[in-house]
Protein 1
Amino acid sequence: MLRLPIGERPRWKERAQEFGFHFHTLYGEPYWDESAYYQFTLEQIERDIEDPTEELHGMCLDVVAKVLENEALLRRFCIPEQHWDFVRNSWKNGDPSLYSRLDFAYSGQGPAKLYENNADTPTSLYETGFWQWLWLQDNVDRRALPLQSDQFNSLQEKLVNRFHDLQFLTPGRELHFACCKDTLEDRGTVQYLQDCASEAGITNHFVFIEDIGCDAQGAFTDLRDQVITWMFKLYPWEFMFREEFGSLLGGNNVRWLEPPWKAILSNKALLPMLWKLFPGHPNLLPSFFEDELDKASNYSELVKKPIFSREGANISVVRGSDVQSLSGGPYGEEGFIYQAMHPLPKFGKSYTLLGSWLVDDMAAGISIREDGNLVTQDMSRYLPHIIL
Amino acid sequence: MKRSKNINLTRMRKGKGTSFVLRPLALGITAALMGCSSEEEVKVVSSVEDCVSNTQLDEAQCESAYQRALAEAERTGPKYANLSQCEAEFGSCRDSGSGFWMPLMTGFMVASMLNDNDRRYRSSGYYNPVYRYSASGSRYYDRLMTADGQVIGRHGKTSYTVDKSAMDPKPKVTKTVSRGGFGAVASAKSNWGGGRSSSGRSRSWGG
């Protein structure tokens, strides 16, 4: 695994315009960065990333099954009691999932270590599935990269195939996509998924989360008063559970992407549960609930993470009684978990986080984020990669 | 090869200024993708008698078809909060009995060519209601359309050639009584002014 400099494609910003990639620069800072790329060997990809990704996903599903049959665990995962049946039923019915992303610390040597599972609302999808694919294609075409360069990235192909399957599993329904207002990045991610769904022949619509309505019977509606029967929402389950319309969930006939049982996976309580069920697994970091810190005495440094959080918010490092905040944020009211410190590898001046994508249960590619800080946050940069 | 073998760049290209705006239904694209003949000739009949004299269905089948179309109109028909809005677009409207107004069904569609199997199937089949649009000055004036606004043709023809999707069941339309019940947590958290994005607003609610 190497970080190598490369010339930017001439006029790549015009190309971004041509393909509708509008968030490559955010708040005046570069987000998409093609001044360098990461190079992996095929063995690193297959042995260290692809296989562990699918194995860990299977282990995560074991955790879901375990948590859903245990009320004490449902409480630990902060699932509100009035939504237990909603979540349990979605699991019992086998509601299908679309995609997720596991975040790893990986340096090219030794096992990749799981930081967390973005199983409910993963983003940086378009940049991965399409834009870095195009970057490789363009650079091979202009001979800036060797002809035999490959990429671990079958994301778009797998997404379209998955949408084909999902239509078969969800007959007679049109698919509504939703995200929040005022976020170009989320709208871009959702537009990309709409393009993939259209490619698979699914009739689809868009409505902003804030514009969703309900009728007198509790059915959800879009702005044209069409009843929503199948919805992809780029909006966290833990938010929806706690909002006004949350009380209608489960009472109306809607199929969800991601399905409600994903609330168990996109939850940091997953990490100590994995460690309990699979102690010593090479891809796991020792992790503990707050009331089990006596078991963590072997670890001089622990990372404290909120049960619910997004984009690296509210992370601190704990050394004995010393707590040092690494990032602020609006999360943490539901409590915290603790993970043994395993810093991100540093390449040059940047810390590097590797995201490994799954479409349903198949490993589908990787994305790389770099940050000047140890915690990758919302302003970290995206870099492409190749396999050579 | 560990990457997508082929991505259709033409389909991924976005016209200038058209990205991320609401786009119409993907129906046309879908039909083209399926690669099958997507058109069908239909008759629009306005009553059971009209159905018996102008289609291959017999009286019992026509009666059943009519009842099905009425039920479908109830489920999928356009719904208005007040009578004047409804009348402005469709002329004749009725009180739904549940607090809103709906246009009267002008008729329902029956396929022109039915073989024996079709006829048996059609008697228990699906019948889409159509409505006559009558807003004066509109380019759709006097056009027949299905509940989702798909235009069938000018009112009064003996038969119509329609996209097969016109015969598909339409999504249910209802009356929204409340909006804004989702989004409050994101809104509360976005008031937190930290993070490194200078706007103080989170860039994404994903992760």
Note: Chain B touches chain A through 61 residues (CB under 8 Å).
Protein 2
Amino acid sequence: MIEFIQTTKVYGRSDRAALDHLNLKVGDGCVYGFLGPNGAGKTTAIRLLTGALRATEGQVLVNGIDVGKEPVRAKKLIGFVPDSQEMYDKLTGWEYLNFMADLYGVSREDRIRRGKKYLEKFEMAEAAGSRISSYSRGMKQKIASIGALIHNPPVWVLDEPMVGLDPRAAFLLKEEMTNRAKEGATVFFSTHVLEVAEKLCDRVGIINKGKLLTEGTPEELQQKTGDASLEEVFLEMTGTDTAAEA
Amino acid sequence: MKNYWILTRVMLKNMLSSLNPFASIYETKQKKSRAILKTVALLLISLGALASVVYLEYLIFTGLEKIRMKELLPGLAIMVSMVLTLVLGLFQGLSELFQGKDAPFLAVLPLTSRQIFAARLTTLYLTECEVNAVICIPAFVLYAVSLGSAWPVALTGLPVLLLLPLIPLSIVALLASLLMRISAFARHRETIVMALSMALAVAYSVGVTMTSGSSNSTQDMIVMLLSREALMHRLTGFFPPVEWAMKGLTGNWGMLLLLAAVSAACVAVVLGLAGPGYLNQALSSTEKTVVRAKQGKGEYSWNRHSALAALHGLEWKELLRTPAWAYNALAGVVMFPLMITIGMLTGISNADSSGLEGFRQLIAGVDQGYAAVVTAGVLMFGSMVNPAVSTAISREGGRWPFALTLPVQQKTRFLAKLLVGVEINAFCSAELAIVAWVLVRISPLWLLGALLVSWLISLAAGAFSLWVDAIRPQLSWSSEMEAIKKNFNQVFGMMVWVILVALCVIPAVLLWKYGGAVTLAGVGAVALAEAAVSLPLLFRQAEKHAVLKI
């Protein structure tokens, strides 16, 4: 379970909060889509959740553990797939997975079983012996996803996970996200692809200028605004002019 | 030709933009003033470094003047500049020419391979000119002042300065191109290139040592001390362009013309030979590895490690598998003892046996504690420049936000980085200690004492320089070379080392009269205190840097 309680982040001496008193609770077994235009505060929220940033005010809890107070304990519960392609690319795929398993304290048996399972599933078994620097963008995304799953985390956080994936890889990732949620994990991801959010998410939150504008199931949001699709809801919530033109 | 100029201008602008505090108009006022302060600080440090070079050269000059050999100073400066370009330029050449991330982008622009190669070579040439200017200008000025007339030296000095890097740089570029061609189809290309370039650099050093120091007989030494010409020839014999440049500087226009002609020919040859295939070579490494990615097969061991061991292993792998980092982190510290070893071995093989035996007897006759203190001082130099640790956080670059999401204590992460740097130094000083034991026969027990003292200094210097890098990490870099080579934290790390060593000199001076053992113990106690202070300071700071500082 993830909980943002009055979470605020102000960068440096800026007079504007990148994240403004965010209150959000995502339960177990839920796939949660975090939507918003560029610069809305999605990455800030994810960085606060994963412990890369400290909140100026408020708290972020992962399964009841305060990320600000007990970062290492909280981080152990999270599997994180970053949006950038910046990773330890001098390692081979295997070395990367073993490295992640070491940091998360995964037993040898578990790392072999899960490593092999996900490498097969994401069709990366043959490339695992090569250095990550030689991978394509999609392959990097896949190995990062496997690395985030190697410790079977109760919370899976993905920042723009569909970018760079081919349709088959995107399908496999979406399937895994749904499976993880069915097994009781919390899946929290940011995306710009509204169709994905509409089809995949149990709940969706729309954020703009650091504030959570609305939150609920895709159906609830459509009912609230009277719009036909999540895309229209998004456009209406984040920029009226664009919505009117549309 | 026009495209060459356009590309060169853009590359130079890009290179210089990092020094411009007003590069971005979007920066906040606070960031702008911080950038100005940083620039002023860097300027002051650079001036300080330049002043040190001037002072050192002045000391050498006054010494040479006393033995009526003042002409040797510009000669020495020319020789050092050319050797530096030859030995260290190879690493830089490989990184700058063949490991730029912009090769795929440049490949689609309407530019020929030779134009791109020439533009890159020009930026490399200007960087070398900059280094040569720092080394040579003070020497040239001192020489001109001693002549009482600045104009003749200024007239010849400028062309000499501009011509100096061309021949060694052409050799370096040709060798780098050859290395890339040889390794083109190898599976472990980066490792092969790195090993071969290190081997070449060692070969250079051996060549220099053998040609410039091939005779140590007493008779030869007397001849050299009495004859300026003989000594000059001895210094420059290993590489004729050094002699041409020296003679050109002193007014021999024929030699200057010869230097210019050979330099021009070298550049033409390198552009002709390496230019056409350059772009393919620069692009080939990425193409080859992508193909290989689909071929990796086999079983993996999946062994378990502690978090510290995993991070420590990661640091080593990253360092060894990134050529630019490996050259810079390992070249200096590995080559330093290697060159001393080779130099000593070459000297011994040429010296008469009584000379070495006499030196051994001299060492055996003095208090071994004193010998250990002096040895400790020499061993400490191994940790003077240690980019492995002084740029350890900066090298994380864009991965730093991700690294901070991993579930490890920040001090574990810092310790892993520190250990790698200390291990590199430990390896080097151990190697030097073995050389001292084998060749000079210093007592092993005293050597161990010297080693321990040098390791403590290495630990303290490493911890302090890592702390500096944690406070001001340079995470925004576009090439791996930039991450390590153009990182000023290295200089700060070196300054920290100077302070720590200077503090060790105090007990050495105060306790010298009480015997070698007491002096070594005093130096050791200070080194231990420094290490004891540095580690808690680093670990206390570590947690403050466990989140992004934005």
Note: The radius of gyration of chain A is 18 Å.
